[in-house]
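Record 1 of the preview.
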Amino acid sequence: MADVLGTGVDWLLDTLAAHVSRTVIYRRASSSASISVTVGQSEWETMAADGSTIRFVTRDYIYSQAEITNFGLPQRGDEIVDADGVFQVLPSGTLQAARYLDPRQKGLRIHTKKKDIV
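->
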């Protein structure tokens, strides 16, 4: 039987890469690679100990895991160099630094925050 979900995920990742992507540099320590990504964002809220609401907004980078197999999964502290700055892979709130887009683990969504350059 055909893997309809797998075929659909492949189509989605290929379509994103072909029509709504841009190239960025993915860095870990002294290693780097150019990858095609689609930019998105995630927003969520959590309650602080004092009862106030804390709102988080991350810039997300969506890509096919096949783009950078030599790095493995994104790790806290990895960096993405984009046209408007350097973004650090960083978990926020209850979200991990990255999550799969699909059960076949072909696509990834990385959560980042813009790195302050001092």
